[in-house]
Every structure is written in C-alpha cells, then in structure tokens.
C-alpha cells in the first residue's frame, strides 16, 4: 500500500485565496491588515522564514513591516519596540521571530506583546484561552495541521493522536488542539522510554522533534496519518523532516512531505491570524465608541 500525499502547498494556496478575498473586503472598509515581524540577530534560517512571511503578506494584499535589530539588542530595547507596535493603529499583528539571542528572556518578550496582536498565539492569555476552548489566536503550526486534516476529511474525534515533541510553540499546543477536537492524545519527548511502543498505536502521528529520520517504518501503524513538522537542514542545504519519508510512505495511509507540507500551512495560518487581528481592531474601535 502506498500513502496518499497531503499537499500542504496546494491546501495553503486554496486557504490563501480565501484570506486574500477577505483582505480585499476589509480594505474596502479602509483597513489594510498589517503584520510587524521583529528579527533580532543574524540567524540564517530565521531570515529565510521571515522573507517567506513577507512575500505572502504582499501576495494577499496585507502590509508587512520588518524590524531588524542587532544580536546585541537589549531586552529593554526590544520591549520598547514592542510597546510602540502595540500602540500603532497600522499594525494588527506582531511576531517576534524565535529563537532570540540567548541574553534575552523569551517569556518576558512574549508577555510584552498585546494579546490582541499576538498572531503567533504564544502569549499566556491566548494559551489559556485555547486550553479552555475559548476564542483565541491559535499557534500557526498546530492550527495548520488541523486545517490539513480537515481538508482531507479526517474525523479527529475518538482518534488516538501521538505527538512527538512538547515545545511551547509546536508540540504542546498541537496536542491541546487535538484534545479540543475530542482525540485521545499521547505526548512523547526526549525522556520517553520506548518511543515505538506509543507511535505504533497512533492513528495520527505528529512528529515535531527536530531530528532527521527519527521516525522509521517500524514506528508507524499500517494506514496511519503521518504529519511531519520537522525542519532539518542537511549538509548541502537540503531540507528534510523528522520522518524517513521514502520508507514510511509505503506504510502510512497519508503523509505530509518536507518541504511542501506543514511549512506552507504555518505561514498561511499566520496570515489567517493577522486578518483576524485586523477584524478584531475594528470591533474594538466600535465598542470604544471612538475612531
Ligand atoms: N514546519 C513548520 O512550520 C515548523 C517547523 N518547526 C520544526 O519542528 C521541529 C520542532 O520544533 P520545536 O518544537 O520548536 O523544537 P524544540 O527543540 O523546542 O522541541 C523539540 C521537542 O522534541 C523532543 N525530542 C527531541 N528529540 C527527541 C527524541 N529523540 N525522541 C522524542 N522526542 C524528542 C524534545 O523533548 P524534550 O522536551 O524532552 O527536550 C522537545 O520536546 C524543528 O525541526 C523545527 O525546525 C518548528 C516550527 C514550525
Ligand atoms: N515567532 C515565531 N513564529 C514562528 O512561527 C516560527 C518562529 N518564531 N521561529 C521558527 C519557526 C519555524 N517556522 C517555519 C515556518 C515556515 C516554514 C516554511 O515555509 N517551510 C517551507 C520551506 C522553507 C525552505 O525551503 O526553507 C516548507 O516546508 O515547504 C518553515 C518553518 C516558523 N517558526
Ligand atoms: Mg508557529
């Protein structure tokens, strides 16, 4: 049996068409959604991702602003910049690219972002709202995964989902979203004693460890849905996921490629969140009775 490919690029394109037309409607009301991206330091991978984000903003008719700060920037200076963006009427979404230089306290920076402009969904207010199934900005990668599964018609309810990885930006929120969708969720991480024991029981396996070829065909149940979040840069610059794609594709029911899988969905959900933030800013102006 050969797995069906989940074409993230194509699913992303369709979703972006829809977001683009929503942007046009908002522009007709005089609001152009605006995203500010802060890039501190000179991480090459970060630079590539940030460029992708800006290109997509352009394509969808949104404004984007890139704020580049030196590696040596102080925490105070970074917070000052965020405060300025929190107060700007033209900026609806703020993204601080991670990882940050090591002398900066990531938690303090994330908490400085206004929860209403937190398009990454990393602020504790949004995390809390998500955990209690309230309206929130949902982290882009987990939201993109759910969107992909929706588009292939997966009924998540009652499925056993195994998430490998428990980071605050991918693994942990991914498991929480699946729980909200009535899945049974198992988290695995670097201290998990026998990874295979869990992964072979997964109906849906989400690999977000950042370890090339961590997942072999022996880790996967026949017909399972395999979602590969990993972004590992091999020597020579070639990008590969956490899953041994060539081996696993013969056993899985569905599988996402890298590149062209989860990555394009992450960017798309960032655009979705920026649009949502822009819409939110209108309803806030209205309820404040000022403009
Ligand atoms: N496609 C996309 O849009 C995105 C892709 N990524 C990629 O996804 C991957 C994960 O990102 P991120 O969550 O930020 O990474 P982190 O390094 O923050 O987290 C990795 C997680 O994987 C766990 N882990 C590491 N090694 C193993 C192992 N051998 N077995 C089981 N679990 C393991 C760690 O466990 P422990 O907690 O015990 O340390 C940790 O929870 C990276 O490759 C990253 O580049 C990230 C964001 C978006
Ligand atoms: N505040 C913050 N928010 C993030 O969302 C965030 C972050 N920091 N730091 C880094 C990770 C990583 N991440 C990716 C997004 C898109 C692709 C992507 O578009 N990937 C393409 C290929 C890109 C390439 O070719 O290099 C693909 O998979 O097809 C990858 C990785 C967002 N992250
Ligand atoms: Mg993300």
TrEMBL record:
Does the keyword Isomerase feature in the UniProt annotation? no
Membrane-spanning residues: none
Extract the Gene3D superfamilies matched here.
Leucine Dehydrogenase, chain A, domain 1 (3.40.50.10860), NAD(P)-binding Rossmann-like Domain (3.40.50.720)
Record InterPro entries: Aminoacid_DH-like_N_sf, NAD(P)-bd_dom_sf, THF_DH/CycHdrlase, THF_DH/CycHdrlase_cat_dom, THF_DH/CycHdrlase_CS, THF_DH/CycHdrlase_NAD-bd_dom
PROSITE patterns (UniProt xref): THF_DHG_CYH_1, THF_DHG_CYH_2
Binding-site residues, NADP(+): 165-167
- Keyword Hydrolase assigned to the entry: answer is yes
Q: What does the record give as its pathway?
A: One-carbon metabolism; tetrahydrofolate interconversion
UniProt keywords (A-Z) are: Amino-acid biosynthesis, Histidine biosynthesis, Hydrolase, Methionine biosynthesis, Multifunctional enzyme, NADP, One-carbon metabolism, Oxidoreductase, Purine biosynthesis
Which molecular-function annotation in GO is an example for this chain? Answer: methylenetetrahydrofolate dehydrogenase (NADP+) activity
Q: Which residues form the Tetrahydrofolate dehydrogenase/cyclohydrolase catalytic domain?
A: 6-120
Give the EC number(s) listed in the UniProt record: 1.5.1.5, 3.5.4.9
Provide the reaction this enzyme catalyses: (6R)-5,10-methylene-5,6,7,8-tetrahydrofolate + NADP(+) = (6R)-5,10-methenyltetrahydrofolate + NADPH; (6R)-5,10-methenyltetrahydrofolate + H2O = (6R)-10-formyltetrahydrofolate + H(+)
Q: Where is the Tetrahydrofolate dehydrogenase/cyclohydrolase NAD(P)-binding domain?
A: 139-280
For this protein, the record's NCBIfam families field holds: PRK10792.1 (NF008058), PRK14186.1 (NF010783)
Function, please? Catalyzes the oxidation of 5,10-methylenetetrahydrofolate to 5,10-methenyltetrahydrofolate and then the hydrolysis of 5,10-methenyltetrahydrofolate to 10-formyltetrahydrofolate.
Q: How does it assemble?
A: Homodimer.
Q: Which family does it belong to?
A: Belongs to the tetrahydrofolate dehydrogenase/cyclohydrolase family.
Instruction: Give the protein's recorded name.
Output: Bifunctional protein FolD
Q: Which organism is it from?
A: Cytobacillus pseudoceanisediminis
Write the lineage as a comma-separated list: Bacteria, Bacillati, Bacillota, Bacilli, Bacillales
The gene from which this protein is expressed is: folD
């Amino acid at each position: 049996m050969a797995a069906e490919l989940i074409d993230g690029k194509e699913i992303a394109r369709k979703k972006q068409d829809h977001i683009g037309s929503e942007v046009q409607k908002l522009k007709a009301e005089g609001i152009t959604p605006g995203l500010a991206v802060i890039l501190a330091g000179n991480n090459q991978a970060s630079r590539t991702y940030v460029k992708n984000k800006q290109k997509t903003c352009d394509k969808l008719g949104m404004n984007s602003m890139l704020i580049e700060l030196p590696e040596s920037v102080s925490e105070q200076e970074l917070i000052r910049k965020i405060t300025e963006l929190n107060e700007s009427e033209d900026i609806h979404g703020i993204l601080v690219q991670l990882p940050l230089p090591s002398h900066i306290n990531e938690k303090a920076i994330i908490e400085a972002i206004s929860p209403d402009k937190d398009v990454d969904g990393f602020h504790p207010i949004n995390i809390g709202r998500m955990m209690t199934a309230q309206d929130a900005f949902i982290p882009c990668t987990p939201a993109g995964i759910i969107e992909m599964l929706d588009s292939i018609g997966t009924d998540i309810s009652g499925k056993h989902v195994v998430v490998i990885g428990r980071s605050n930006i991918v693994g942990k929120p991914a498991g929480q979203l699946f729980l909200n969708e009535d899945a049974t969720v198992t988290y695995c991480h670097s201290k998990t004693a026998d990874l295979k024991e869990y992964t072979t029981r997964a109906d849906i396996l989400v690999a977000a460890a950042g370890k090339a070829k961590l997942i072999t065909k022996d880790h996967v149940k026949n017909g399972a849905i395999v979602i590969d979040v990993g972004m590992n840069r091999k020597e020579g610059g070639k990008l590969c996921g956490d899953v041994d794609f060539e081996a696993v594709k013969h056993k899985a029911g569905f599988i996402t490629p890298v590149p062209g899988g989860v990555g394009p969905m992450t960017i798309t959900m960032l655009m979705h969140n920026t649009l949502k933030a822009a819409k939110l800013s209108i309803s806030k102006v209205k309820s404040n009775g000022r403009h």
